[in-house]
Amino acid sequence: MVDTMLIDLKALLVEREDCDAGTVQRVRDGLAQGKTQFRTLRDINDTLKKRVETAAGAQAKKIHLKLGIANYFLGHLAVAIENLRQAEGALAAFYLGKALLEHQELDEAFKAFDRSEKSGYTASQVLLQKAGIHRLKGELTQARAILTKLADQATHNAEYHFQLGSCLMAEGQRDQALRSFERAVELDPSHTGALFQLGHANDLAGNDDDAVQFYERCLNHPPLHVGLLMNLGILYEDSDKYDKAVDCYRKILHGDPRHEQARLFLKDAEASLTQYYNPEQDAADSRFSQVLEIPVTDFELSVRSRNCLKKMNIRTLGDLTRVSEQQLLSSKNFGETSLAEIKEILGAKGLRLGMALEEGSQFERRFHAQQPLSEQEQAVLNKAVSELNLSVRARKCMNRLGINTLGELINRTADELLESKNFGMTSLNEVREKLRQYGLTLRGD
Fold this sequence. Notes:
By secondary structure, the protein is mostly helical. The chain is built from 27 helices and no strands.
């Protein structure tokens, strides 16, 4: 029979006087058991805070170390840093470096790792953390030099493969990087850094189920990073698991109450929990949207019609529902024959010209065939939408709608974007701000 007894965190951090690397590993193992362990750690944290108020000298330093470790695993980085700075010894310096690294204070983290190595912490582990700092600062040559020095760690050290994979990813060698992350997880199934990277890679590739599996494995091995919780929350929303998404955003706010994006996403997810859902209507809307996204190139158009539509940047049937007969006829060489051809295609799909306009979508195409673009303007419109560096949620909306360039994006209205699943005002404002940097706006803005 498998022993399911929970690790006694209170015995480790309250009843035991000393805290060493073995203690920290046991705490991490205990938290991985889930259940009530996080609540227990929060209670322990409260107990230690009361004790440190009356402690002094060496005793106070030991309690500050425990407080630093507890808050590090709870995700309260600022509090962890404050306490670890008041502790002493190699373990305190090492975890101070880890907390500062998570807090993006790279130079201070490097100094803390220096102190931990001088105080006797395992040199290879310290050097691997330093390699990570060099990489984050763009100093790949220095990072690679450390990894070359530690090549013997490749046989057994998961952190070595994680740092190697991170360097490979930074160098653009994605496939090799993923193999390194996979090797890291083979050596240590609880390595959250490697698990996150594998989840993120699947997230970007659109393999949502695999991404969720990797992200959820990270949940069992704290500390939980903000990026993990944000990405997982969005994926949960995509699969209508709004209660789980709410839990992710609340975890972020518990660690950082000032995280504005998490607060906005939480509000959206909580609102979705109470929305009425009609699966039949949703399926019908989905089918209709798919029809609107059919490219005009899928139909056997005459050369004249095809060329005119191309000049007017009309790519889909949905684009045709947003123009009138007069607008088509005003295009050079587009006559009644071409118009009849287009009407026949739309009619076969239950659509008609100007249909979207009648439903309240204002057509306002910026670039007509009569107003040719300069090379510079065309270059901007041809830019990939990925260059906007959108958040995960906004990026997924672009993928769903098949929007690949800025030119395609500005031909969408705000209402069209808001109709996309899980795309709210926060994402809309983000897109508007990014476009504004290029002097562009959405259609109808």
